[in-house]
Give the backbone structure.
Amino acid sequence: MANKTTFIVQAFELKRKRLVPGDRQPAPTDHGARKRAEALSARKPGAAALKVVADDETGELESIEILAKFGDVPDDFEESLAA
């Protein structure tokens, strides 16, 4: 079983005065995810850079880590990743 690491940028949008997840974008590296999230937060209410480790064969998640948060990110975002 080989693990694969993927970096993702999660944007957040305001809908009915609540922060909700918006578009997700892949990033090539840890640094790239952080930079892209920071740039995205200038156009959106907030963004987060994530590191996702999953089994390459089964797709089973091994771990999800928030690398950085910029702007407004929901308070329960980290808890929702653990569920």
Remarks:
- The mean pLDDT is 93.
- The first strand starts at residue 3 and ends at 15.
